[in-house]
Amino acid sequence: MKKKGFFSTFCKAFFLLIFLFFAFLFALLFRASFPSGTFSVSSPFSVTPLSSSEESAPLRRLTGRDEETRAIWIATVYNINYPSRASLSASSLEKEMTAMLDRICEYGFNTVFFQARPSSDALYDSAIFPVSAWLTGEEGSPLPGGFDPLGRLVKEAHKRGIFVYAWVNPLRVTVGSSAFPSLDLSALSPANPARLHPEWTVAYDGQIFYNAGLPQARELVAEGVREIVKNYDVDGVVFDDYFYPYPVGNEVFHDEEAFALYGNGLPLDDWRRGNVNKLIAACYAAVKEEYASCRFGVAPFGVWKNDDGRNGGSKTNGLQAYSAIYCDAIAWLEQGSVDFLAPQIYWPFSGPAVPFGELVDWWDGRMKDYPSVDLIISHALYLAPGWEKGELSSQVSYAREKRSYCGSTFYGYAALSQGGEELKKEFSSLFSGVLYPRLSPRSSS
User: Fold this and answer.
1) Which 8-state DSSP code applies to residue 37?
2) pLDDT tens-digit profile of 283-320?
3) Long-range Cβ contacts of 54-59 (<8 Å, 24+ apart)
4) Angle at 204 between CA 223 and CA 219, to 5 degrees
5) Rounded to an integer, what distance in angstroms lies between the CA atom of residue 349 and that of residue 143?
6) What phi and psi values does residue 104 have, to the nearest 5 degrees?
7) What residues contact residue 268 under an 8 Å CB cut-off, 6+ apart?
8) Is the peptide bond before 83 cis (omega within 30 degrees of 0)?
9) Is 239 helix (H, G, I), strand (E, B) or coil?
10) How does DSSP assign 99-166, residue by residue?
């Protein structure tokens, strides 16, 4: 019995060694099929090698086209998109909003970026900023018939499964130009913070701005953002590209006093960039303190820096947000103060100085090390009629192939009502399939 038991054990061990040998050989052959040593599963039945450039990239967060952000910008300044004019009745405002949301659904969008604060004003019920003149005709007048545009939009959009982001212009107090200046602070509502604290403001090119170099001004902006997230079930807050004003000729932005107080020996340019960085960080913190799942992000100007061979910029030749308007989007990634970036890449593929593809590649490359931050591409829908046919669809298709990509947003809403059936068919094709993202819009229920 002992001999038989020994022989049986020996045979089992022998066959186990044979099995392990062939398993090891198969593994070597399998590895040889993928020189990079890395592979990704693209379907249950196929295995696709990753390119060498993708080996160190984070896992793609967008696992299905139904999860992408498909956003449309709705501008209220100058009554560009909503409302069609100031001083409408509550019933007219509601009618316009319903028609707008119906069209947005019809085209397949799942997110709106609604300009809730175009300047130092509000298209919602605020204890900090006066009701906007673009809504009532006179800044500081009561909400018309009690109609609260942001509140109603959130309610009606969420019924349709549409996300709502409050679009805020953080530092702009008035809109104007050197030809048509708007510099009279006494024309603002007596309750406007800029009128209450003119020392927080700077005039430039016919407009008035809050001075980002002052802690009081940054705190005002952050508290305004906090108020929105606290009082409204918005899914996110988004800033556009306006911070320090775009440069005009040799005009000087007079923040010398603030620089003398708070510059701490920094060069002026670095100090201004630091002010914007502090503003972004303060607003991000305010959002998260009120509602941790609410998202905060920025849609910066498309060009961070032009490549000079040393600075890591894009191979472009355009205005540089880093030096012209003191916006350092890479710093916002590094300091962890954005949930998404939506760079405004408002050029076609054939743009000689700033080609679309180059910038998409650049942003994707810079964001691959920040897998918790979404890349949303901002497209110039309003310029598309002047581009080659199919340009917009090609842009979205190109962006969808990037590892950091999580969606597209289109400026602006007016193009939908002017585009006709051809544009509707284009978006129907782009957005075919399931139309809504992976999460449900925020709800107070």
Assistant:
1) S
2) 999 999 999 999 999 999 999 999 999 999 999 999 99
3) 54/403, 57/368, 57/403, 58/368, 58/369, 58/371, 58/403, 59/371
4) 15
5) 44
6) -60, -45
7) 259
8) yes
9) strand
10) HHHHHHHHHT--EEEEEEESSSSBSS--SSSPBPHHHHSSTTPPPGGG--HHHHHHHHHHHTT-EEEE
N-terminal to C-terminal alpha carbon distance within the chain: 74
- Positive/negative CA dihedral, 191, 256, 328, 346: positive
- Name the β-bridge partners of 212: none
Residues facing 46 on adjacent strands: 43
Tokens of 141: 């007048």
* CATH number 1.10.530.10 given to 69-430: no
Residue 424 confidence (pLDDT) = 92
Residue type at position 90: A
φ and ψ of 246, to 5 deg: -65, 140
SS3 431: coil
Question: How far is residue 29's CA from residue 430's CA, in Å, rounded to a whole number?
Answer: 41
How many helices (H) and strands (E) are present in the chain, helices listed first? 13, 12
409, 65 Cβ separation under 8 angstroms: no
**By the 8 A CB rule, do 218 and 279 touch?**
yes
* Per-domain boundaries in the chain: 2-46, 69-430
In terms of pTM, does the model score above 0.90? Answer: no
pLDDT in tens, 366-376: 999 999 999 99
Helix axis angle for 356-367 and 391-400, nearest 10°, is 20
Residue 42 has pLDDT above 80, yes or no: no
CA 85 to chain centre: 27
Checking DSSP bridges between strand 46-49 and strand 39-43, what pairing results, if any? antiparallel
Residue 242, exposed/middle/buried by CB under 10 A (0-12, 13-18, 19+)? middle
* Cis status of the peptide bond prior to 64, with omega within 30 of 0: no
Distance CA 281, CA 229 (A): 16
Please report the pLDDT score of residue 417 as a whole number.
83
Say whether pLDDT at 52 is over 60.
no
CA gyration radius, the chain: 26
Confirm if 139 and 131 have CB atoms less than 8 A apart. yes
